[in-house]
């Protein structure tokens, strides 16, 4: 059953708890990320640290179930991931969410994002498939982008109609999701019913983030340090590739997009830039900047009331996108 609470408008001010969390993060996690290394030991430490933080500040609903997937459907490797069913989710639903996790193309996994996926599943009553794409530095561009395509083909090949799929992604997963739909639209390929971007990375040079950083320092990480992490994935790549630098020419042919970002994070600049460029080319986009919130705050419900409030708005967007796409299909068939 879909969560029945009514979604409220985006607040005009941050809660006291979330403001305090941002300050604590700035002098805790923010200090740690200022000393990140990108050698093998540094990568291992970063992965362990982010996993611990996601466990500490996430909250997996009681009654969540998980089904791991490892299907060897590709010549160069398997499609891996997991189905996450929050309490009340319809396991037999033909409507699903295809979730692409962050962070920085070199950290996290379905297990780190299980709490987030479970809460998204519970609030929408939909199954969530979280892709376990390959990470840098072990696998560089275009490994993650190729895996996203393979995951989509795997879902469609198992009978899920594109009009019944919503793609969601946070941080680097938001970059994967945005390039995925823009490039598929340009190629006139099948598209999902809608897309949700949580604090997406749009500019992989972090130039936009650096500009925003001069106004307010992100509590979690600096633009320079974030760029260093992402470069583990992009090193040696042609940055003009449309899977790295977004081409908005086909935005008008894309499904509707909801973008949520935090007012305290540097990537609000990326969120605004995406929305501006997407809308300028005729795309349908809704942008929400949540005051005082940090990067991917929706995944951290223990830091304040805003994460759950934001997911209620995501629920309504997803429901409308799925219903609208079905209505359009019915009218044209």
The CATH class label is: Alpha Beta
Q: Report the end-to-end length measured between terminal Cα atoms.
A: 29 Å
Q: What value does the average pLDDT take?
A: 93
CATH superfamily: Alpha/Beta hydrolase fold, catalytic domain
What CATH calls the topology is Rossmann fold
Helical element count?
A: 10
What does this entry show, briefly?
By secondary structure, this protein is of the alpha/beta class. Helices cover 41% and strands 15% of the residues.
Please give a structural write-up.
With 333 residues, the chain is α/β, with parallel strands linked by helices. Helix 9 links the parallel strand 7 and strand 8. The protein is globular. Helix 7 packs across helix 9. It has a single domain, classed as 3-Layer(aba) Sandwich (Rossmann fold). The model has no long low-confidence stretch (mean pLDDT 93). The protein has an eight-stranded mixed sheet, sandwiched between helices.
Question: Descriptors for this entry?
Answer:
globular; 10 helices; single chain; Rossmann fold; alpha/beta; about 325 residues; 8-stranded mixed β-sheet
Ordered list of secondary-structure elements with their pairings:
Blueprint: H1 16-27, H2 29-33, H3 40-57, E1 65-74, E2 77-85, E3 96-100, H4 114-124, E4 128-131, H5 143-157, E5 165-170, H6 172-186, E6 194-198, H7 207-213, H8 223-234, E7 257-262, H9 268-280, E8 285-290, H10 306-332
Helix pairs in contact: 4-10, 7-9
